[in-house]
Amino acid sequence: EGRETRLRVVLRVRPLTCTETRRGDQEVVHSLGDGAIHVSAARHDATFGFSAVFDAGASQEAVFEGSGMRQLVELAIDGFSCTVFAFGQTGSGKTYTLMGPLAQSETQPALLGLMQRSFTCLLEQSRSRGTDLALSASYLEIYNEQVRDLLSPGPPCALPLRWSKTRGFYVENQLSVEFESLEAIVSLLLQGSQRRRTSAHALNRHSSRSHALLTIHIRSRAHHPPTRVLQASACPSKQGTLCFVDLAGSERVKETGSSGELSVEANSINRSLLALGHCISLLAKPRGKRTHIPYRDSKLTRLLARSLGSSGITLMVACISPSSRCLSETLSTLHYASQARRVTTKP
Question: Which residues does ATP bind (predicted)?
Answer without folding.
Answer: 88-95
